[in-house]
């Protein structure tokens, strides 16, 4: 299995430099047209997206997860699960950008996608426990507090 290297920096719009054009092509290229649902969970893009999310590379997580989302059947459990992870990455990025209201809205969207993934796919979708995604959402919401 391909070792995933973390980006040299986390991109935060308005604060840090964008990554070079093509920096994430190898991740994007791991998702090919017509890939089955089971194969998608083993792509470099999915695995890297989750690692980037876990390690605080939120913009990068969204960037590499998007082709996975686009390859999943619309309204499938997998589509919902990947969208939930993308919304969580967006929420975490908004927190870093000091936009807590936007982050809270995105957490709510992420939660809705997680619920939809569970209702149509069960407790494990894309090789990941839905409860794990929900816990990450709750953790971010706890950091955000209420306003």
Describe the structure in your own words.
- With 147 residues, the protein is mostly helical.
- It has a domain at 61-147.
- The chain has seven helices and two strands.
- It has helices at residues 25-28, 37-40, 44-55, 58-71, 77-96, 100-121, 130-144; strands at residues 124-125, 128-129.
- The longest helix is centred in the C-terminal third of the chain and has 22 residues, at 100-121.
- It is globular, with a radius of gyration of 15 Å.
- The mean pLDDT is 95.
Features:
147 residues, mainly alpha, two-stranded antiparallel sheet, 2 strands, 3% strand, globular
Shape, per Cα inertia axes: globular
Return the structural class: mainly alpha
**Distance between the first and last residues' Cα:** 44 Å
How confident overall, as mean pLDDT?
Answer: 95
Low-confidence regions: none
What Rg do the Cα atoms give?
Answer: 15 Å
SSE order: HHHHHHEEH
Strand fraction: under 5%
Number of strands: 2
Number of helices: 7
Strand count, sense and barrel status of the largest sheet are: 2 strands, antiparallel
Strand order, biggest sheet? Answer: 1-2
Q: What share of residues is helical? A: 55-70%
